[in-house]
Amino acid sequence: MPSLAKPLEDLLVQSGRPAKTDGRHVNLPIELGSTIVFDTLAEFEAARDKRYETGTMYYGRYGNEASFQLERALSQLDHAHGTTLTSSGVAAISLTLLTFARPGMHLLVADNVYANTRAFCDKVLTGLSVRVEYFDPMVGEGVSDLITPETCAIMFEAPGSGTFEVPDIPAIASASKAAGIPSIIDSTWATPVFCAPLTLGVDVVVASCSKYLSGHSDCMLGMIACTETYHDQIRSTVMAVGDKTGGQEVFLMLRGLRTLKVRMDAIDAAGREIATWLAEQPQVKRLLHPAFESCPGHAHWRRDFSGAAGLFGVVFHTCSNDQIRSFVDALQHFGIGVSWGGYESLVLPVTPTRTGTDWSEDGQLVRFNIGLDDPETLKADLAAALPLLTS
Ligand SMILES: Cc1ncc(COP(=O)(O)O)c(C=O)c1O
């Protein structure tokens, strides 16, 4: 990983809050508000002209001191020229794609993207006459052959949602650069702690802050961090659409950032411990965990990432749907629910959607999110439920 101006730990502790000597609380307060008033019309007009810029107080929808502080902190962490907050991860993805996709254009999207990225492409962009083509996420530099004069952007994820293939990030980024189009990566899984896609040549990082970045399953928020080339364009779309982040979410996200590194390190260790244990169980056919050789793209992970998140897949030997359901229902310490990246452990059976490639793994895929529980507790929980897959 390239080095930041300050050690990551220091940035996470210090950025986005008041300096230590100014006699205030260590945290910024929850900032609420719509109207901002000015003493003179000239001051009002100056703010109006710069209202899309991070730091300009003009009207609550465009941001406030706390949200600007958070945007600056995220830019530092992601090596970005600028960051724009959005109301959710889905909003970050859809508003970024909306910035580039126009009727008649062609959009390349990796076939293993998050389900709601696909839903936005298929429900909204296709309806706007954008031709969406789903490509093999492991195509690497071969993505160049798919780019046409109409291609407006390449959207991908590392690793892919549900199936965890790790693409060749620099190869895809350099193909898109050569064609003069933006590459957009969903880097929610890695967070800036484990991967810095902008330093690998990617133009735009989108992420759900509702996951690890805030980290406590109490906040919905998204972010778009990008290079200078695309920052203003994307920010204008977000502002023009009127997407808005709430003061409480910004507060919770700033608070979550302080512990991001320690949470990620603990979750990485626990995730690998449980994955290692699962790999030894007779019911398990294959681990889809980027830090393990059995995961497609493991070599890319080793080259481009400095750690692994606690979300991974397990392919169980073929059994009945009823057995999978009984297994999941029997787990006492894993909650059943969407999302991930909080302190709690979760489990969910997954059926991958593919339209550009095949996902032809025999067996049943289950996704685990390892939280901050004691790994021994989780192993005991799994050990008690696994026999249901063979009985
Ligand atoms: C990889 C990925 N990106 C984006 C999102 C969407 O984030 P949000 O729930 O904040 O809209 C999710 C949510 O599950 C996700 O898994």
Write a structural description:
The protein has 391 residues and is α/β, with parallel strands linked by helices. It folds into two domains: 8-258, Aspartate Aminotransferase, domain 2, CATH 3.40.640.10; 260-389, Alpha-Beta Complex (Aspartate Aminotransferase, domain 1), CATH 3.90.1150.10. Helix content is 36%, strand content 15%. The chain contains 13 helices and twelve strands. The strands form two sheets. It has a seven-stranded mixed beta sheet with strand order 1-7-6-5-4-2-3, with helices on both faces. Helix 6 links the parallel strand 4 and strand 5. Helix 4 crosses helix 5 (115-125) and helix 4 packs across helix 8 (228-241). Bound molecules: pyridoxal-5'-phosphate. Pyridoxal-5'-phosphate is lined by residues 88-90, 114, 157, 161, 186, 188, 208, 210, 220, 222, 339.
